[in-house]
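Board notes (copied after class):
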Amino acid sequence: MSLLFETIVKGSFLMDCLGVIGLGLISLSAVRLAQQRKSWGGSTMAAGAIALLAARLIVLFRTHLLAAGMLDLSGDSLAQLAFVLPTFLLTIGLAGVVWGIWAHERWLREMSRR
């Protein structure tokens, strides 16, 4: 097989790129929503989406750092943090996005009643 095919299909490069682009677009749209509508739900959603994006980037770069031996040089605590932090950020990020959507929807209901 060709190297390009293996990189895109087997290495999940395409899915990683699409996931990072999607999370980036969600982050930007949530920030725009928070700025235009002054909704605190938009701010919570943006913070959650940014946490999800940070976790995804840590997961992507962790394999490269392990291959290069960078985590071994930095010590045991940083190597453990590289495995624990993405799970924490994914949990907090998902909660932030869901809570932000709920809060913005509630805010919209309050604004429509006025």
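Comment from the instructor: The mean pLDDT is 79. The helical segments are 3-10, 13-37, 40-68, 70-74, 76-113.
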